[in-house]
Specification:
With 354 residues, the protein is of the alpha+beta class. It has helices at residues 3-61, 125-135, 147-152, 170-178, 183-193, 201-218, 241-252, 255-262, 269-272, 288-292, 336-350; strands spanning 71-72, 78-79, 87-88, 97-102, 107-112, 142-144, 167-169, 265-266, 284-285, 302-308, 312-321, 324-333. The chain folds into 2 domains: 1-63; 78-350, Beta-lactamase (3-Layer(aba) Sandwich), CATH 3.40.710.10.
Length: 354
């Protein structure tokens, strides 16, 4: 036999040995896996059974409050949410997202896509108002508008007409934020509240927006993320009708906030000093009561409007019927008249002793 033939036989023998070793190794791995599965399965079954028993015992000892949806806030208090007693709204309203909240009873009366996130537009300023009021010790303290506030606000934003060097009380700015929906007044409030942490206007707005998020979470608004104080469009600036209703409810239960949200117009010594081109007759007029509703409030006691091209029209309102306090929030409807019609329909159909 020549050397080439012998070498080939040796190579074949070596390959067979390697294949044999590989098969043995695979067999050992398979056996180990089967053994591990046999050991782990009983343990998993025991743990799953024990956990399930524990959950049943917990549920038995702490039954959920189904009358209010079983949702709780950070303090463990039950919050209103959509449940089996909630009327699910459909084509009777034109808004894509909506919630009717009975604040007195603490329940959601009617809802439509209540927990779907959307852009709120300027009803954001309801939360701006609440956080500002809760963090300002003296509303009659004066604030001089820095030039950075006027330049920071986007050119397409609705303004109250603040000018660099103008002097206002903080109470003035609350009304300037809500009635004419002034983004400049909203930013000025944020700048004042965060003044000890930063002098930069943009940073102040971001910090104040985070403060709004923290307060919203305390109220039970779990699907909210604000990135600005005015509601100008941003893909990351979102909330839900349900969350917004909780925020509006908190605002109208604050006396100062309720007075601001209920005002049809406002003027002061400071607003009267503004040039006519900036502020007609020195008075701020409500976009809701002198705009969307004109002279007829239609039973609405307080509220805030909103609009951007992306969010369309949004509306947060408050009323009292048969001794109960109600908040209705609607989002994403194409037309202020339709937003008002939705509020009228829901209030007259589902509120009070029916």
């Amino acid at each position: 036999m020549n050397n080439d033939a012998l070498s080939e036989r040796q190579r074949m023998h070596l390959r067979r040995r390697r294949l044999l070793y590989l098969r043995r190794a695979l067999l050992l791995l398979a056996c180990a896996a089967i053994l591990a599965l046999l050991i782990a399965t009983p343990v998993w079954i025991i743990r799953a059974t024990r956990d399930a028993r524990g959950e049943r015992d917990t549920a038995k000892n702490n039954p959920p409050d189904t009358s209010q949806g079983g949702v709780t806030d950070a303090e463990g208090d039950t919050l209103p949410d959509v449940n089996h007693s909630t009327v699910i709204l459909g084509s009777e309203i034109q808004s894509e997202y909506a919630v009717l909240l009975d604040v007195t009873a603490g329940r959601v009366v009617a809802a439509k896509n209540a927990n779907v996130q959307a852009n709120p537009a300027s009803i954001t300023k309801v939360m701006t108002l609440l956080v500002a009021v809760e963090n300002i010790a003296d509303l009659d303290a004066e604030y001089t508008v820095p030039w950075q506030v006027t330049t920071h606000v986007a050119s397409d934003a609705t303004r109250a007409g603040l000018n660099s060097g103008d002097v206002f009380t903080l109470r003035d700015l609350l009304y300037g934020c809500i009635l004419p929906s002034g983004a400049d007044a909203a930013v000025a409030l944020a700048h004042y509240v965060m003044r000890e942490q930063t002098s930069d206007v943009a940073e102040a707005e971001a910090l104040f927006a985070q403060k709004m998020n923290e307060r919203a979470a305390e109220l039970g608004a779990k699907n909210t993320h604000f990135v600005n104080v005015s509601g100008l469009h941003d893909k990351n600036h979102k909330t839900t009708a349900m969350d917004m209703a909780l925020m509006m409810a908190a605002a109208v239960q604050n006396e100062v906030c309720r007075e601001v949200l209920a005002a049809a117009n406002y003027s002061s010594e400071n607003t009267l000093r503004l040039p006519p081109a900036q502020l007609s007759d020195g008075t701020w007029h409500s976009t809701l009561f002198t705009g969307w509703l004109s002279a007829d409030r239609e039973g609405i006691l307080a509220g805030k409007t909103g609009y951007t091209d992306q969010a369309l029209h949004t509306l947060a309102t408050y009323t009292e019927i048969d001794g109960h306090k109600y908040v209705f929030v609607s989002m994403r409807v194409n037309g202020s008249d339709k937003a008002v019609a939705d509020a009228r329909t829901v209030y007259t159909t589902y509120c009070g002793d029916k």
